[in-house]
Design a protein that fits this description.
Elements: H1 2-17, H2 30-54, H3 58-80, E1 84-88, E2 92-104, E3 107-118, E4 125-126, E5 131-134, E6 138-141, E7 151-156, E8 159-164, H4 169-175
Antiparallel strand pairs: 1-2, 1-6, 2-3, 2-4, 5-7, 7-8
């Protein structure tokens, strides 16, 4: 009986070592691969669509840039204790600083009337939208925190955003 048990185990081992030569058992079928590719492509398209929907529009991006620019100018005004005028046009927002002196050659001469010149320290914010409208031409920002109340309307491709530029950061924090 012992011999039979050893013979039986040898046959089992031999069967495990036999290589299966059935051609249909080597891998995935064409239909299985096509189904997997189809599922992966559907998931990829859904992810792409959700990313495009989640990205902010050009109008929203410009609104954030204008608000950041105004906050930057407010900080600049308080740091240097000098008023700044923001000149708003349809294609740009430019900071003007108060220049009581004019350069004439090597010496500076007081001008007859104070001049508001483009600021050398603050960059111009250019707009690329089709329509930027402000109810005032100049937004005055003073060192004491005063900002001219201004309503800015941004619009492009049927999307429109309206916001107030005269609301200070402290007032926004109080509203929250």
């Amino acid at each position: 009986m012992v011999g039979k048990k050893q013979g039986q185990t040898e046959r089992v081992v031999e069967k495990e070592n036999i290589i299966d030569t059935d051609p249909f058992m080597k891998g995935f079928t064409l239909i299985e691969l096509l189904v997997v590719v189809l599922i992966v492509s559907i998931l990829a398209s859904l992810v792409t669509l959700s990313i495009n929907v989640a990205s902010p529009s050009e109008v929203s991006k410009l609104k954030a840039k204008i608000q950041q620019h105004i906050a930057l100018v407010q900080n600049h005004v308080q740091l240097y204790n000098q008023p700044i005028h923001l000149k708003v046009s349809k294609d740009k927002m430019q900071a003007l600083s108060f220049q009581p002196e004019i350069n004439k050659g090597k010496e500076k001469v007081l001008s007859e009337k104070p001049l508001w010149q483009p600021s050398q320290r603050l960059n111009v914010l250019n707009f690329k939208l089709r329509s930027v409208v402000c109810n005032v031409e100049i937004i005055k920002i003073l060192p004491n925190g005063f900002i001219t109340d201004a309503t800015i309307i941004l619009s492009q491709d049927g999307e429109s955003v309206t916001f107030k530029a005269g609301v200070t950061l402290k007032a926004k924090a109080d509203e929250s």
